[in-house]
Each structure stands twice: as C-alpha cells, then as structure tokens.
Amino acid sequence: MLTITGATAIFIDSTTESSGDLTIEGDGTIDASGCVVTPGLVNAHHHLLQSAFRTLPGTRGVAMRDWLPTMAAAYARAGVDAELVSAAASVGVAEGLLSGVTTVADHHLTWPSGADTVAIATATADAARALGGRLVFVRGSARDDPQGAAASAEAIVQALLPSTIDGMLQLAVGPAGVHSDSRETFELLGEVAARYGLRRRTQSNEQVDTEIALEKYGKRPIDLLEEWGWLADDVTLAHLCDVTPAEITRLAAAGVSATHAPGCDLPMGWGIAPVAALVAAGIPVGLGTSGGGSNDAGHLLADARLAMQVAPLVGPPIPARHVLGMATEGSATGLGRSELGHLRPGSAADLCVWDVSGVADAGVADPIAGLLWANPGRRPKHVVVAGRVVVRDYRLVNADEHDLVDTLRRRLAR
Ligand SMILES: [Zn+2]
After folding, report:
1. Beta strand segments in 181-246, E
2. Considering only CA atoms, which of 22, 26, 38 is closest in space to residue 99?
3. Tens-place pLDDT, residues 298-323
4. d(CA 378, ligand 1 centre) in Å
5. Alpha carbon of 290 to ligand 1 centroid (Å)
6. Exposure of 259 by Cβ count < 10 A (0-12 exposed, 13-18 middle, 19+ buried)?
7. Ligand 1 mean position to 53 CA, how many Å?
8. Residue 72 CA, ligand 1 centroid: distance in Å
9. Which of 215, 300, 334, 409 maximizes the CB count within 10 A of its CB?
10. Are the C-beta atoms of residues 135 and 166 closer than 8 Å to each other?
11. What sign has the CA pseudo-torsion 236, 121, 84, 395?
C-alpha cells in the first residue's frame, strides 16, 4: 500500500475531508506534512493537438469565423500526422500532470484526408501511457465525411479497445457540434458508441453554435441534439454558455452532463456558462480547459479559480469545495468513471500532494479553500496515478520535461 502521512488536510470529495494519514493502493510512503492532498484532477475537455499552436497570431481577440481558418492553416502548414500528434500530446499530458491533472479527455478534431487515423489515436494513447497519465481519447469530427468518421471510429475502437482494460485509456466519440457536423455524423458516431458502450461528447451553445444552428436549421442546438438522439445520460456537452432556463430543465431531465470551460469561453468572448443554475437543476458539471488554441494553458486548477471568480457575474457564488468537486468528481461523472475524482475507499488511487507551507499560502485559514483562492498557478509537489508516483518533487518521473519540448520544437521547425 502507499501511505501518505501527516497531511494538513485531505479533500476526499466535495463533502468529506480529513487530515493526517491516508492509505491507498500502491507502494511506499509520501511525506505530506505541510501539504493538502486532493484527488487527481480530471480535465474533461482538451484538444491536445492545439498545445503545439498556442498564442498563434490571428487567433486572439477574433471571432470564431476567423479563428477556425487561422488554426486550420497552421495545421495544414505543420502537417498533422502521428508524429506531430505524439509530440503535442506528450507536451499536453505532461503539462497536465505537472499541474495535477491525472486524467485528460482529448477531443481530437483534426483528421487530414488520407491520414492514418488509427496511428493518430495510437500515438496519443502511447504518449499518455509513457508519462503515466490517464487519457480519454475522443474520436471527434469537424466537418468530416460522416461515413468516413464512423469507419475511422470503428477502426480506432478495434485497434485500441483491448488496451483500455487497465483504465489508463478510455475511448469516446464526439462531433465538434451541430454548427459543424451533420445529423448523419451524430447518428453514425452515436451508433459506434452504442455498439461498444462508449460515452458521447460534443460542444454546444457557444454563441457561434446557436447562431449557426438558427441560421442553418431555424432551431437552437439543444433542439437539434434532441432530434438527433443526443440528449441522453451518456452525453456530455462542453461550453453551454448560451443556454436558457427551459433548456437547462430539458438537459437535466435527459440526464445530460456538462463541462464548464471558462478558460476558453471567456477569451473567445462566448460568455460564462450559468454553472450554479446547471448544478441546481441536478446536472453533473465537470471542468475542462479546452485546447491551446483558445486557452493557452492546460492548468485546470487555475481554471477552477477562474470559474469561482466569474461565477458571481452570472448567478450565486460557487464555494471553493464545489468548484474543486467539479474539477475532480464532476468531470469523472461525465466520463462515466465512478472510480476517479475522489479518495473514498475503492478510488483508483490518483492523487495530488500540494505544498501549502510557503509564503503564498501563509495566513490562509482554510487550506482547502486556499488551494483555489491563494497562490494562483500553483503546481503539485507530488502526483500519483493508479498508485504510481508520476510527478515527484515537481518533476516528471517518466520523462525529461525538456526532451518533450525539444521533440515538439524540432517537429514544428521541419
Ligand atoms: Zn473545445
């Protein structure tokens, strides 16, 4: 067993906490004196490829209709293949682990025509596994041919399903949204999900999504998702900025879960999802960063702080423990992973040890609330995934951080 000793506080879940010692699956001992222990964070919405394309000129302070072609041109220039995907995913997963993210959902949307899609998915899975992080690979689609997207999803499942057995990899499907993909894509990817018991994920109700849905179909996105069979309890919707009270009631009744991504939605000018109203309706809400093209950091705890800071602009304030619950168990619930996001007996033994003994945390009366309110940009001292230490003393155990950076830099320079 792995024993964590002397913790100042232990966040078991959003309603349970303790202090002192904790024993989980694994081996050895970690001294947590002066530290707060939390479950590993679960980033429910990322686009790992975009980690290679941050702060790209022409992508900041612009409308989505300008953002999309600028990103597409950058992908075309770089040539998206398994090698680039591997380098970008390695950087993204490593950044996540170094900031406490033990599980990341990669909604991969970029499939150049003729690309070996199984190789792209496999490269992402291998990158996460090599670093010791958990990955949810979402076979996305953004204006892909519907039949081609479904055939590729099927091939990816055939190739990778056997390696999901240990829980380090999960597969899911997800069109980018009703603004980009057709009813046929939603239905065909939904059929693949039903065949293999995969979760379904998409993006909904960013303003641009609502605008295009109204223009193209004369309907709002939630109406279309319902017609297309995508309002169900295996579906998670990211963003949900522009959602009405009546739509919130329908989402709750259908058992849909949500992912809040304020670190993307705010800079993109999409607004702030009414998270407190979603939670009050009984919708499980997780937290995601979205990708480097809109949110240049994959630091989920920083975005949890942002979520807490902006909440009072669109509803009641959300307490720190609830937001931390979103970044852990809320995200895991949307992924159908009841073993992740908490430290109750039977958890998957993913945790972070956060040193709160420095000046940036001095004078903090409530160390769990302080994790979010104080010391922005903090990183965990140690991170454990599946009982194995993957970050020790702020460094990756399974890779040299700078080698990952060099690999990506060299690939992009070619
Ligand atoms: Zn996104």
Report:
1. 199-204, 235-239
2. 38
3. 999 999 999 999 999 999 999 999 99
4. 24
5. 4
6. buried
7. 14
8. 15
9. 334
10. no
11. positive
**DSSP string spanning 303-338?**
HHHHHHHHGGGTSS---HHHHHHIIIIIHHHHTT-T
State the Cα angle at 65 between 63 and 69, rounded to 5°: 115
Residue holding tokens 């920083």? 302
What stretch of H or E contains 276? Answer: helix 275-280
Token duo for residue 291:
């990708």
Going from the Cα of 411 to the center of ligand 1, the distance in angstroms, rounded, reads: 24
Q: Give residue 295's Cα distance to chain centre.
A: 12
Burial label for 36, CB within 10 Å (0-12, 13-18, 19+), is: buried
Write the pLDDT tens digit of every residue in 148-171: 999 999 999 999 999 999 999 999
Helix 183-196 and helix 146-160, axial crossing angle in degrees, nearest 10:
20
Q: Are 62 and 405 in contact (CB under 8 A)?
A: no
Counted residue by residue, the chain has a size of 414
Regarding beta strands 351-355 and 382-385, do their DSSP bridges make them parallel or antiparallel, or are they unpaired? antiparallel
Q: Is the pTM of this model over 0.90?
A: yes
Cα 142 to ligand 1 centre (Å):
12
CA of 125 to the centre of ligand 1 (A): 19
Element holding 171 (H helix, E strand): strand 169-175
DSSP 8-state code for residue 168:
S
